[in-house]
Amino acid sequence: MPNELMSRMAKELLVVVPKIAAKPLVMIPFAAKAKVIEQLLQHLLSEQIAADELEFLQGHWVAVSVADLQLSFEVSFEHRFTVRPVSSPAVTFSANSGDLLLVAAGKEDPDTLFFQRRLCIEGDTELGLEVKNMLLAIDLQQFPSSVRTLLDKLAKSLLWLQQTSITQVQPA
Predict the structure, then answer these.
(1) Per the CB 3.0–4.6 Å rule, which of 8, 42, 123, 152 could disulfide with 91?
(2) Can you tell me which family this protein belongs to (predicted)?
């Protein structure tokens, strides 16, 4: 019985937590979210910017959709990152927040998620592959240690919840 209760609680948390996180996120004006995303990308990809490795993004818009957080935007690069509401992307990446957290923390491979249909890439697949490879090249050591620790703990907690939610009670 305790295992069954833990499994049900874990399943419920996996559904409820993103909904709770989405509520305040929806209330933040898009311009504020865009500014944060632009600054984050400028910082995380500063090495690629300095090495002129982002030419492939010029003139192209890449959409990101995180359905469980009700967050969607497009990003492009022309000397700096620009974020806008989704209108005409060349390629769209869609996933839930948990899967994106696992990728960001280095606990899950985006190719695995793609083949499990937990990460969708629609549109210009060549551009999508370039974007995916660029994001995989981000060195997690660029993050402050407190952010790395938080990402790691959140990812480990998520993995534990996922594993616990599928635990089956063994017959006696």
Answers:
(1) 123
(2) Belongs to the UbiT family.
